[in-house]
Every structure is written in structure tokens, then in C-alpha cells.
Write a structure and sequence with these properties.
six-stranded mixed sheet, 358 residues, 10 helices, Purple Acid Phosphatase, chain A, domain 2, single chain
Length: 358
């Protein structure tokens, strides 16, 4: 059904309706909480206005002018904050069936919930992943990060915080799964110079956001830093084979099997890691000598109810998946899409312990 050309447009329509419903719910319930009674017509107008603001903020974020970009980011922070209020509104309705909640109490709870959403979006957790293999001669420690989404506010300081985490973990290899920037812009290239502080090899593939804006910015990152691009290429690193493929937005009419063949991956018995920005179902990889697939892109939905909706748009949504001898891990990303606010998800660095099977 995912290959049906009508399926995804229908899902986009359904998702838009859900978003409109959530905005309408928040506007109605929160206005009631503060003693304001809005007529249905006003609720509809305000709901459409919020959707228009969301679309406008996305447009402003791609602006070459820093002031407009920051203004767009602030607008999206406000829009995203309304999503954080969804569980608060539902909780209030449930409790109100029996108890009356003071306005001050709800205000404090709302502020705390917003704070938690920002904390989950800006605080990086370390997610362990253990893999056993008899195709390696020693143990390895590998870092996988994806979806940094560097922009006007999440800039050089955030890249430095990521690099600081990597320094503490001291991996043998670092792999980046695309979406280095939110929108590719030359002014953010220098933010990635921080990666030159690392001594271990660093490899990266490109994501769909790296294709937006000035794509030459991504090439400049690869030219100025120690980050080595793997674009439909394979490389052997200390007994491990790493294969990086371009995001679907770069592929044109090329099919996945053709791209994998183009990468010249070896079938020499090495442990092979496939790095793909968008997760590929392991069934599509059968017939190729791939042991581990690493992907990002989904952000695990970043907030509810997107956590559930993204499952219809991607082969995998988040976490560990298995098929025969192959494993896939989809990261929820070390950064965030536009506003650093998360609900029931958290920014992460994946620490892979690749251990020799006894």
C-alpha cells in the first residue's frame, strides 16, 4: 500500500486534519480555562491562522537573511509549544470531571510541561546498541549520530556539545547519517569545524535537508573538515566495511539495488554497515552482504501524535529491527526539526558496541 501513489497524499490530508483538530482543541479548551468563550467561527479562524503561521514560519526559515530566519524559528517554537499542551489539555479535562483546577495551577503545569519538552529536545542522551558478530577480529566502539539540523539558533555551540560527548565516549569510528543542516547555507559551514578536534575517522552520508537550499554548503563542510563523505560509496576501515548511500531526494530515477551495486561494496566477509538517511526495510537489502543498517530521518515523530503517524511514511520509525542475520537501527536524531521541543522522544547519540562473537 505504501507504493500506491494515492496513499501518501491521503496520509498528508489526514495528518493536516489531525493538526487542525489539535489546534482547535487547544484554542477552545485553553480559552475556556481562562474564562474566554469563543464562538465556533472564531475557533475555526484562529485554527486556520495557526496553520498559516506554521507554513509561513517554514518559509521564513529558508530565508537567506538571518533576522527573518530567526523570526521563522521563533514562530515555529510557538507552534510546536501548542503541541506540547495537548496532554495537558486532555489531563485537565479528565481531572475536571471530579475536581476544579485553579488557573494558577494549570499555568504552572503548562510551564513545566513546556520546560520538559525543551529539555528533551536539547539534552542529549546516550543510547546503547550491542551487536555480536563472528565477522570481526576485535571489538569496536562506534558512534552514530543523525539529523543535527544546524540553523540560526542551534549553531556552533550545539555542534561543540555533540563533539564534547563524542570525546568523552572515545569511539573508534564516528558515522553521521545525514541532515547536517536544517537548510543548507554557506554561513553554517564553519560550525562544523569543531569536528576537526576529533582524532578518529568520521564518515557521513547526506539527508533530504542537505538537498534544500545551497547544496554546495555540504560540499564545503566535507572540504573543510575531517568528515569524509560516503555518497553511494563503500570504504574499508580497520576490518569493517562502511557503505553510505545518498538520500532518496538525490537519487533521481535510480533504484536502491542499482545504487547498492554502484557503491562497489565487497562480499569479502567483512562486517558491513549500511548508512542510509531514510530507513530502508531490511527485506530490500537481502542479497547484499549487509549486517547492520543505520538510519535516521524520522526523529521518532519528535512529538505526539506524530510518533504514530510517521510509521505510515517510513519503512521503520525508531529503534532496533531484525531480519535473519541483519539488524537495522533507526535513531531519533541528535538534533530536532526546526524547534528543539520533543514529547516522549529525546535527542540521542547512539553508542554501538560491536563485539566479537565467541
Amino acid at each position: 500500500m505504501d507504493n500506491n501513489p494515492i496513499f501518501r497524499p491521503l496520509l498528508l490530508i489526514v495528518m493536516s486534519i489531525i493538526m487542525l483538530g489539535i489546534f482547535a482543541l487547544i484554542i477552545r479548551r485553553e480559552s475556556m480555562m481562562f474564562g474566554i468563550s469563543l464562538k465556533p467561527k472564531m475557533i475555526i479562524m484562529l485554527t486556520i491562522g495557526m496553520m498559516w503561521l506554521a507554513a509561513t514560519s517554514l518559509f521564513l526559515n529558508m530565508s537567506p537573511w538571518n533576522t527573518w530566519e530567526i523570526f521563522g524559528i521563533v514562530l515555529l517554537w510557538i507552534i510546536y509549544s501548542t503541541w506540547v499542551l495537548v496532554p495537558i489539555v486532555i489531563l485537565r479535562d479528565i481531572i475536571s470531571l471530579r475536581y476544579k483546577i485553579p488557573v494558577l495551577g494549570m499555568s504552572i503545569i503548562t510551564i513545566l510541561r513546556l520546560g520538559l519538552g525543551i529539555y528533551q529536545g536539547t539534552t542529549i542522551k546516550i543510547t546503547p546498541l550491542s551487536i555480536l558478530s563472528n565477522q570481526i577480529s576485535k571489538n569496536y566502539k562506534i558512534i552514530f549520530i543523525s539529523d543535527m539540523h544546524i540553523e540560526a539558533i542551534h549553531n556552533g555551540w550545539y555542534v561543540q556539545s555533540i563533539v564534547n560527548h563524542i570525546k568523552k565516549l572515545q569511539p573508534d569510528i564516528v558515522i553521521i547519517g545525514g541532515d547536517l543542516m536544517n537548510t543548507a547555507k554557506l554561513k553554517y559551514v564553519n560550525a562544523f569545524l569543531t569536528f576537526n578536534q576529533l582524532t578518529m575517522p568520521i564518515y557521513a552520508t547526506v539527508g533530504n535537508h542537505d538537498h534544500m537550499g545551497n547544496s554546495s554548503a555540504i560540499q564545503q563542510i566535507f572540504g573543510k573538515t575531517k568528515i569524509i563523505p560516503l555518497r553511494n560509496q563503500s570504504i574499508s576501515v580497520d576490518g569493517i566495511q562502511i557503505v553510505g548511500i545518498d538520500d532518496k531526494s538525490y537519487r533521481g530515477n535510480k533504484k536502491l539495488p542499482d545504487i547498492l551495486k554502484e557503491s562497489n561494496m565487497s562480499d569479502s566477509g567483512q562486517f558491513t554497515i549500511l548508512v542510509s538517511h531514510e530507513p530502508e526495510n531490511l527485506k530490500k537489502l537481502t542479497g547484499f552482504p549487509i549486517n547492520l543498517e543505520l538510519a535516521g530521518h524520522t526523529h521518532n515523530g519528535q512529538f505526539i501524535p506524530m510518533n504514530w503517524i510517521i510509521r505510515f511514511f517510513n519503512d521503520y520509525s525508531y529503534g532496533e529491527y531484525h531480519l535473519d542475520t541483519m539488524t537495522a537501527f533507526v535513531s531519533q536524531g541528535v538534533g530536532s526539526w526546526w524547534a528543539p521541543i520533543r514529547i516522549w522522544t529525546q535527542s540521542e547519540i547512539v553508542l554501538i558496541s560491536l563485539q566479537k562473537k565467541q
